[in-house]
Design goal:
Strand content of chain B: 15-25%
Radius of gyration of chain B: 21 Å
Number of strands of chain B: 7
Order of helices and strands of chain B: HEEHEHEHEHEEH
Helix content of chain A: 55-70%
Largest sheet of chain A: 6 strands, antiparallel
Oligomer: heterodimer
CATH class of chain B: Alpha Beta
CATH architecture of chain B: 3-Layer(aba) Sandwich
Structural class of chain B: alpha/beta
Number of domains of chain B: 1
Distance between the termini of chain B: 74 Å
Radius of gyration of chain A: 27 Å
Number of helices of chain A: 22
Largest interface: A-B, 43 and 36 residues
Strand order of the largest sheet of chain B: 5-4-3-6-7
Shape of chain B: elongated
Shape of chain A: globular
Chain lengths: 666, 187
């Protein structure tokens, strides 16, 4: 019964979305306040019904209702409960439902928390959001119904792809979607503003928290996915420039640009049409990601069940939303008046450089990702574009950005004094050079690009900290006074410092783990010895163990350094008989200095089990944990900025109440 | 000028859309790499033996004139999947009597010798393709790759990647059977 109920709830949500896509925007055009306000109830009700549908699907998974096709295909009665729940969004249909759930949640959140947004803009924004809802709800109901029944029901399910049975991955899609779909509301704001024909500093201020929230989720989602690939896939890497990784990275790059250009629009009333364009393009790239993953357009390690009919429907949605919004942009953007003027050396110019580089980098990734498709269409040749292209084009492009990032916060609005800035950064520059020399001395060898990146990372880190120290006048005034100043500093400033420093930390990780990685792949039997990065690793043998829905071959490795046992590593290879696939559970000894990473591959043949010969892959990845720490700092920085008083709803009012109540009654 | 510029994003998006529409063609499989060599005579080549190895070198003439089609495998000691594939190939040679020839691709002779000493050498002849020049002639996209060559030197089948795992082995065996290199169900 519940599956039909869920299906019905989806249909109702579509009906509500249809009303919401027309009524509020008509109200805004006619000045009918009632119609405009209907958006609030409609968006909340829409969220409620999509939420009910989602709950119905989740229930079908938790009770292993194999009469539902989706459950039978993606679940198994013996699977741990957490993964039954996570399997709700493990399939194409389920993940689409999650997508729509988040979409409607953002709509409801705007109508709920956006009390400071003027009614007409809010009504238009929510109507635009409902257009997207209509598109995706109808897509789901017409081509990918998650509640499709199956008769006769199988005894047991097909099991979820075992690779996806992991805590990191259970969390990865929801976060990534929060990011992807979060940009939908920014897109809706942009389209609403184009319809109104007015963009001002207030608009930028209303949009900023939503951009930040989406950006944070996307950052966390990408980092989590990368972390998952690192420790679960057993490939010993955290980024592979795979098309599906790229399509999540592009909205991030452009979203970062948007985050910064919106500041200029907010503070200086400039970059208006550019900010709008970024808002449209960021969400367009999110949609593109959804399209690429589900249409089988490009070959990738991440693949949903591919269905060209679905692809065509999504392409139609893309054409309507992206084409429509860009056409609107082409029509309305030239009418927007230019805002505040600025000199070539100024905060605005710095942010312009940031935007240009990020946009160019996005273009590069987009081109590299789609080039195989273009080439095949034009010449019929099939090629794949891999890491060498991206490493050679993307990284050198980002280096100047890191340099400017160090400078940017020192620049004042309108006109900055570059000589003065360099004066203040003199010691930072000297320290960075000394730092990189020290690292060169320690490592003795490595690519020039690696040293250059390290140099810029130190530069960024120190310049960011120095700027923060200057603001609170650390070392100039007493420590107590500095602390007081730090408290009074807007949280957004702390957020920026945290995020910029976080990127510097992450760069250490990127460079360390790619430039100074050591790797060995060996054929081992019991007693084999491997030397790697100062460790002496002994392979003891393999044991057969059994888990709830798999059995595992577990290798035992003794790791010694200078003759003393440092740790034991137990890499596993798990075989899932039901799903007929296997996963690699790598074993990692993790320290701040680096990870020692071991994984065993399948025995070369059935004979190997008798002879005890296994393929052992052992890696040392220096500084890799800095990536996760840096990513965490990026998200934390976003959170700090989001909690800034300026962006909090109704914050000024609460502040005054606090002030009055805290005055002691004398 | 400003007006034209404002249209640029739309124009670019439409061009992208056109490519996407083309790419949705259901008969298109982006992961399939076709080989221009299929049904064509194998390219001319002559490779010296791997230095320090007893196995003789390989030329095109060595591939033809056998009583049954043979397998040409491109491998390297630095290639991890080759290791996994090695046992499968060895089994094909030892149990099924397949005749196996190898091209050692961009490999240091010393490494190749050690690799074969460790794992065993199922190859009848091995040509050392030090600079990868012959690899280009064969149009390989990576190592390992395996070709089935007919008795007259025609390339009958190409397998990209390691023949590892039940599915891959089944596919390769089927191709061998079809080519007549493998007697029906004798494993």
């Amino acid at each position: 019964m519940t599956p039909e109920f869920g299906h019905f709830a989806l249909a109702l949500a579509l009906a509500l979305a249809l009303v919401q896509s027309v009524l509020p925007i008509l109200g805004a055009a006619r000045g009918n306040l009632m119609w405009m306000r209907s958006a609030r109830a409609l968006s909340v009700a829409q969220l409620l019904f999509v939420g009910l549908a989602f709950a119905a699907l989740m229930r079908a998974f938790t009770v292993s209702d194999f009469t539902v096709l989706n459950v039978a295909e993606n679940s198994h009665s013996l699977k741990p409960m957490l993964y039954k729940v996570a399997a709700t969004w493990g399939s194409h249909e389920g993940s689409l439902l999650l997508w729509v759930l988040i979409l409607t949640a953002f709509g409801a959140a705007v109508s709920f928390f956006g009390s400071n947004i003027p009614e007409p803009l809010k009504a238009r924004t929510l109507s635009v959001q409902a257009w997207i809802s209509v598109g995706f709800l109808s897509f789901m109901l017409l081509t990918s119904n998650p509640f499709e029944r199956l008769f006769p029901p199988p005894i047991d399910g097909n099991d979820l792809n075992p690779l996806l049975q992991d805590v990191g991955l259970a969390m990865h899609p929801p976060l990534l979607y929060l990011g992807y779909v979060g940009f939908s509301i920014v897109f809706s704001f942009a389209v609403a503003a184009l319809l109104e024909g007015r963009i001002d500093t207030a608009w930028a201020r209303w949009v900023r928290p939503w951009t930040l929230a989406a950006w944070m989720s996307l950052t966390a989602g990408i980092a989590l996915g990368s972390w998952w690939a690192y420790y679960e896939l057993g490939w010993g890497g955290w980024w592979f420039w795979d098309p599906v990784e790229n399509v999540s990275f592009m909205p991030w790059l452009l979203g970062t640009a948007l985050l910064h250009s919106a500041i200029v629009t907010e503070k200086r009333d400039a970059f208006k049409s550019w900010t709008i364009l970024l808002a449209i393009l960021t969400f367009s790239l999110s949609l593109l990601g959804t399209f690429v993953v589900r249409s089988g357009l490009l070959t990738s390690v991440h693949a949903f069940a591919v269905d060209p009919e679905r692809g065509l429907y999504i392409l139609m949605l893309l054409a309507l939303s992206i084409g429509g919004s860009l056409a609107l942009f082409a029509w309305r953007a030239p009418m927007m008046e230019a805002g505040g003027l600025f000199k070539p050396v100024s905060r605005e110019a710095g942010l312009l450089v940031n935007n240009l580089i990020l946009a160019a980098a996005t273009g590069t990734v987009l081109f590299g990702t789609l080039y195989p498709l273009f080439l095949e269409a034009v010449t019929g040749d099939k090629i794949s574009v891999g890491p060498p292209f991206f490493n050679a084009s993307f990284i050198p492009m980002m280096l100047p950005l890191v340099f400017v990032m160090g400078l940017g916060p020192y620049l004042s609005w309108k006109r900055a004094d570059l000589a003065g800035v360099f004066q203040r950064l003199r010691f930072v520059a000297i320290l960075s050079v000394l730092g990189v020399l020290a690292i060169w001395y320690m490592t003795m060898g490595g690519p020039v690009l690696a040293y250059l990146s390290i140099l810029l990372a130190i530069w960024l880190f120190l310049a960011t900290l120095r700027e923060w120290a200057l603001r609170i006048r650390l070392f100039d005034v007493s420590f107590k006074e500095a602390l007081r100043r730090a408290r009074n500093l807007p949280r957004a400033t702390h957020g920026m410092t945290m995020a910029h420093a976080g990127l510097a930390v992450a760069i250490f990780g990127f460079v360390g783990s790619s430039a100074w990685k050591s790797e060995q792949v060996v054929f081992v039997g019991p007693g084999s010895n491997i030397f790697i990065a100062g460790f002496d690793v002994t392979f003891e043998g393999v044991q057969r163990l059994s888990g709830p829905n798999y059995f595992a071959d577990r290798g035992t490795l003794v790791v010694r350094r200078d003759g003393e046992i440092v740790t034991m590593l137990y890499p596993e290879r798990r075989t899932f008989p039901v799903a007929q696939s296997s996963t690699t559970e790598s074993a990692i000894r993790s320290t701040l200095a680096g990870d020692l990473y071991a994984s065993i591959a399948a025995p070369a043949s059935e004979d190997a089990e008798e002879s005890g010969a296994w393929t052992l892959r052992i890696l040392y990845e220096p500084l890799v944990n800095f990536i996760w720490i840096g990513s965490f700092m990026l998200v934390l920085g976003g959170g700090l900025s989001l909690s800034d008083r300026r962006l909090r709803v109704g914050a000024p009012r609460r502040r005054t109440i606090d002030a009055t109540t805290s005055v002691p009654a004398e | 000028m400003k007006r034209i510029l404002a249209f640029a994003p739309l124009v670019i998006a439409v061009i992208f859309g056109g490519f996407f529409l083309w790419g949705l063609n259901p008969n298109r499989d982006p992961s399939e790499i076709p080989s221009v060599l299929i049904e064509q005579p194998a390219p001319e080549f002559e490779l010296a033996a791997v230095e320090g190895l007893q196995t003789p070198g390989l030329s095109r003439a060595d591939l033809t004139g056998h009583d049954r089609p043979i397998v040409l495998n491109v491998f390297a000691s630095w290639c991890v999947p080759c290791r996994a594939e090695h046992t499968v190939l060895t089994n094909l040679v030892e149990r099924d009597g397949i005749r196996l020839f190898g091209i050692n691709y961009k490999d240091k002779p010393k490494d190749a010798v050690r690799w074969l000493a460790n794992l065993g050498n199922p190859y009848e002849r091995i040509g050392s393709d030090l600079n990868g020049r012959i690899g280009i002639e064969w149009g390989i996209s990576g190592v390992p790759e395996s070709f089935i060559i007919g008795t007259d030197g025609t390339v009958l089948f190409r397998y990209v990647g390691p023949v590892v795992g039940d599915e891959a082995i089944a596919k390769f065996r089927e191709a061998l059977t079809q080519a007549g290199a493998l007697e029906e169900r004798n494993s």
